[in-house]
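JOB MANIFEST
job_type = single_chain_structure
chain_count = 1
residues = 933
[input]
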Amino acid sequence: MSAQVISGTQTARSIENDLRQQVAVMGQQHPGFQPKLAIVQVGGREDSNVYIRAKLKAAENIGIAAEHIKLPREISQAELLTKLTSLNDSPSVHGIIVQMPLDSVEKIDSHLITDAVSSQKDVDGLNTENEGRVALGDTSGFVSCTPAGCIELIKRTGISIEGKQAVVLGRSRIVGTPVAELLKWENATVTVCHSKTKNLSEITKTADILVVAIGRAEMVRGSWIKPGAVVIDCGINPIPDASKPSGRRLVGDVAYSEAVQVASHVTPVPGGVGPMTVAMLMRNTVLAASRQLQRISTPVWPLQPLRLSTVSPPPSDIVIARSQKPKYISKLAEEIGLFPSEVSQYGNTKAKISLSVLDRLRNQQGGKYIVVAGITPTPLGEGKSTTLIGLVQALGAHRGRNAFAVMRQPSQGPTFGVKGGAAGGGYSQVIPMEDFNLHLTGDIHAVSAANNLLAAHMDARIFHELTQKDGPLYDRLVPEIKGVRKFSPIQLRRLKRLGIEKTDPNALTPEERVKFARLNIDPKKVMWNRVVDLNDRYLRKITIGQSPTEKGFTRETSFDIAVASEIMAVLALGKDVNDIKERLANMVVALDTNGKPVIADDLGITGALMVLLKDAFEPTLMQTLEGTPVLVHTGPFANIAHGCSSILADKIAMKLARENGYVATEAGFGSDIGMEKFFDIKCRSSGDTPHCAVIVSTVRALKMHGGGPTVSPGQPLHSVYVQENLELLSKGLCNLGKHISNGNKFGVPVVIAVNKHGNDTEAELNMVREYALKNGAFRAVICDHWAKGGAGALELADAVIEACDRPSSFQYLYPLEMSIQDKIKKIAVEMYGAGTVEYTDVVLEKIKVLNDRGYGKLAICMAKTSNSLTGDPSIKGAPTGFTLRINDIFVSAGAGFVVPMVGEISKMPGLPTRPSIYDIDLNTETGEIEGLF
């Protein structure tokens, strides 16, 4: 009898050909994607190098990117574990193997090392979790490569394993034990033999299938083998052979020449199990990559919503928020397709998300884009944020859609003032609401620090220029350090702007030195204020420089609230880190004595600002009460700036939501301010196309526009707001009509969300809904999400889904090529209903200067009261034909817009007689915050 040779080489080649085709398909379906294997080697043993070269060659043949990571013999266990953690966290690495044995001078626990490889990337199958799965018959993880190769070779013989007697010689963790388990789950009857087994040859002769992995050259003789058995030889042993150039040859654990005379099938050595081990490693790597692809490309997240237990009537917001236990933010991040390296946790309920997500998902089609705005609100607000949260809870937790809310970070000014927080309300909130409304992850503080560093540096520069002569000033700006004098990169940028092409500080002429060193900032034309994230009316006008050390160089200035800083607007409008840097550099901070703009880069501060803002570039991940994701990022002032969350957060959300998902974001105030700026400024900067606008309306606000009494924070509502009054409501519906018209002018379907309040009657709610449908709304629905969470916004979710399914015909209100005045008139007439626009002589002169300085083609960001469609906050309803007066204008060059001022807009709110401060306290026994809404 002569056995058939089971060629591992041929089988491995066939497997590799199949894998090559699979990898090619992956690349076609997902451009830029390639499976990657990381091979970690400690030291440089030559036998290990032989195996690694075989793996690298196989990977190259298949199309797998294989990285050979060579680590020194001196590496410590802790350092090796750190390296493995970084590979575990890397989205680009799909498989990891640590080449054994470790060639280390340090004592390293190899079992600890193999367990440190993530079970999802353990393509060697040596992690205890994967080994345990195999022991239980679960092959959904990764099966150790050599055992898997053995089973594959047996199956290739065509002989069924089921019902056979199998004997495994060897019980090692690498081969013997796992191959025995695999044979058992293939329904063989398995006997495992080892060094203590008696009558070994008698046992082996009972085997229909004999797997040998004992590491002893040719130990198993032909007399040990049952006639007709399948023999799998896992051994590879060098023995002396004078006929070979090396003086050695490789043999297995089985005496091959004898085995082929008895067995029906036998593997050769070499060319048997060895090539299969490599092939199985490649198969596991491709499997790991395909699993990642499936995870990130599955249309619907494996999101596990949190169940709401609603109470009627709903208790306070903070009681509701604390009644829900949020899921760990790491869990939510995993559900929505983020990798550990992309998530920097701040405790267990919030985390920063890396901008690297955008690069990883650059080829991912984004989701549908929805903006939530409002009608002209009362000072109490109409529940825009609450509606936003209710909508995404309905979409995500109830309709099974991938749905993100993207929100601004609230300022602490309103938190400690009267309005309260911005986390939503009732059963449609972001949690933990205390974190959301207070420090969160410190972005506003970073903006404050950067803003104030610029202010301090500018005042110091003014002082030093006033107190130093030309020579010493230049020498101090470009000092000699350790015998070397050179310009910093930012100073070289200033030289280039000045038209000075020299790079040697000593080569500048006296005139060029003065031109470089003196900014000549006009103290009366400083356009940069300091900021603080609090309401502080006494900082609206201050005098600085009164210390004797400032030598009488005083000037009047003021503080703004932090969210009014142009830096905040820049963060919100930057498309990437480089774009943010360029925008920061171009911020106009003052005018010089000749009336020319001085930019932040002239002060040499751009790099320092970037460093302070480094962590603030990243949005913060939080969750709703129902466990759906929320990205919180930036909080630009909605009057003086554009009042929208960041472009970066929206882009990350749309990529993660995937093609059939939804991203809902908010715009400040009504359609006349926030929505118009969202479309004409934010969408123009981002290039993203909105699919739907949701406009939030309330019966209360419409009654106010119909002539109802003033609504004031902290004061009881007038009876007309708590009792049915259809006549008053009907008079105010014109305001809603104007906002619907505004949305339709941008070519997007407008969905009206009538936010139900407890005192609203069915007749009132239906009147609003019917009016909206008759006056241009795509859909109008009554929402009860404040009292019911996502379940109360299901009709709204369905309307939004239907609206987003329509082809987009989005358009901007105006082209940038229009003149500044024409753009202002377009906004005033189309959005506000104005008849004419009036300018002061000073404003007209400033517009001329803006045009001369090249700012005429920027977008327009109108600074106007949010309490009226006009410039007068006392005028309600929807008046037409009025005159809009522009009493000032300035440029936010970094943000990329010109700001016309309509009336007086305060950038520093004040505290009322009784702010929320009175109600807020920290319970020293429980550590909980009390009285926060």
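[summary]
Residues 6 and 156 are 8 Å apart (CA to CA).
The chain has a mean pLDDT of 94.
exit_status = 0
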